[in-house]
Amino acid sequence: MTHPTTFDEDEWKQQALPLGNDSGNEPVLVEALQSLVLELQRNARRLLADHLTRYAEYQDKANRITDDAVETATQEIQQLREQVLANLNQIQSLVNLSDKDQTAIEAIFLRLEQDTRAYISPKEVFADILAILTQAFQYKYANQAKPPKPPSTLEGGYTPLNDALKPYVEKVFTWHQRQATLRQTYRADIRVHDDYTVWTALVQETMLGGLEETQRQDEFALQAAYVVFIRLLLIRVCEDKGVFPHRFVSDGGVKRWQENINWYWLSSPRFKKTGILSGCSERVKTTLLTSLTI
After folding, report:
1. Closest CA to 100 of 141, 132, 134, 143
2. Range in 122-136, 223-237, 246-260 with the lowest mean pLDDT
3. Is the pTM for the entire model greater than 0.85?
4. 150, 138 contact by CB (below 8 A)
């Protein structure tokens, strides 16, 4: 916005127009409010476009192990998984895996790829697979008088499988770590995209459901502008009624917004009594206060 965000009270009084008593200034007020909403809409529309563009960028990066990768992460991981399964078939003569064992191992791979919280480290994946192989090994030689001792590690007893499994598991963990980092970097864009997607679904069955994408984004920005305007209006009513100890919008309030918010949250007896921010680190307090200025 290129216009001043606030005026001091004396500045405002010099150019304020009276209302009521047949002043004839009501149309001027309506026009000013319409202009404000339009400007808010344009600003919201620009922000929405920026966030959606960055979300598309996030999606493209999240689907690849590195920014310059030609293949998607899913393709790279699938190739490595197929190599693991091929090596798994090669040790059939040693452990005699059943269909149930094969399914259990493939379930581990599926859980590893789809659930980022399934395994904390590669060591846990290796341990689960070794447990299945050990059980199959013991079952195969159960009828022998002196059954052989099963291998205690994948590296020691199932070397080809271990050599194929290691890069596969490392690749999956690298992908998960990259996705976590990207979600943090693009968290605001993800949030806006999710909110816009939910709103789109909610209005799908209304008269807005038939809009083209550009028109839909314009409508979303307009409704966002109305929300901002209504909140500003509510704050002004509360200011006039003395609800707030400080002015947040009028009489220079915007210029002292951060100072007033800080006092309201950290110094107000009401919040001291409830202890809403007690025990929070300075980083958390700063994050909370910063979010209130958005």
Report:
1. 132
2. 246-260
3. no
4. yes
